[in-house]
Write a structure and sequence with these properties.
The chain has about 280 residues and is mostly helical. The protein is built from eleven helices and two strands. About 65% of the residues lie in helices and about 5% in strands. A hairpin with a 2-residue loop joins strand 1 and strand 2 (about 100-105).
């Protein structure tokens, strides 16, 4: 299941991206997401796609691993593409089947939006989960949010909850697959029948899944209590986070990438994205 999940998995490595400060990687991921939403032309998306392949190549992670992680969102991606193809109008009519009209602009728009979704997944997985351990991600997020402690925001607890949620996503997906396989072996059918019948068929999956999730949560709470965990007050760290020039150079590269994307939107508008 590891290769099919976009979040919560860490791939060991010693690449430049792996060695970046987790605080810098969180900032880089957020900036890259902003840059992706700034892209409004096909030329900008071509630049972002090339940059994504460069970042993936720097990590040493196989691009197939990133692509396989899109499977859980395949329905959302296909639904988004279909909506844009069949509902968007334009000047170049390609095909008409009765009242249904397909325009060239709709197809291009669908491709760019699908590409945007894929780039968003790549940004979050490459910089935050595939190359950063859950513990490092927690420490980095906590230190970035540390100014909120002055207004009594439980930053440590918030960071811990987010990291635990990310960590348990692949575990719960794996558990779901095991339950589906067990129910299928008992004769359950989840692929045929009406929508109501399929919804009822999900009940034998959801109930064991909820029971398993609560059991794992209880076991985790017990383990934390046995280790005398009482929150963030007075806690020390074995590995103290230290930033280096390469972290800020990488952040600067993302800022320059954003400037290049804006320039592509203005000066090389191959196609304007309609969203």
């Amino acid at each position: 299941m590891k290769s099919d999940i976009a979040f919560g998995q860490y791939v060991e490595g010693n690449s430049l991206v792996h060695r970046l400060d987790p605080r810098a990687k969180i900032i880089i991921a957020l900036l890259y997401i902003v840059v992706i939403f700034l892209a409004k032309s096909a030329s900008a998306f071509i630049l972002l796609t090339a940059a994504a392949f460069v970042f993936i190549g720097m990590t040493g992670i196989s691009p197939k691993l990133i692509l396989r992680s899109l499977r859980p969102l395949l329905f959302v991606i296909l639904f988004t593409a279909v909506i844009n193809i069949f509902w968007m109008t334009g000047d170049t009519l390609l095909l008409q089947l009765g009242p249904v009209k397909i325009y060239l602009e709709g197809i291009i728009n669908a491709v760019l939006i699908v590409l945007r979704i894929m780039l968003l997944i790549a940004a979050t997985s490459v910089f935050m989960t595939y190359t950063t351990t859950p513990l490092a991600l927690t420490d980095g997020l906590e230190q970035l949010l540390s100014p909120l402690k002055k207004i009594r925001v439980p930053v440590h607890e918030f960071s811990m909850m987010m990291t635990i949620a990310l960590r348990f996503i692949p575990t719960l997906i794996d558990e779901t697959q095991k339950i589906i396989n067990a129910q299928t072996a008992r004769g359950a059918d989840f692929t045929t029948g009406s929508l109501v019948k399929r919804a009822k068929a999900l009940v034998p999956i959801l109930i064991p899944l909820f029971i398993s999730a609560f059991r794992r949560a209880d076991e985790l709470a017990t383990a934390m209590e046995c280790r005398c965990y009482t929150g963030g007050n007075g806690r020390t760290r074995m590995n103290v986070l230290k930033s280096s020039p390469k972290d800020w150079i990488f952040v600067g590269c993302i800022v320059l990438l954003g400037a290049a994307v804006v320039c592509c939107n203005i000066w090389i508008p191959l196609y304007g994205l309609n969203v």
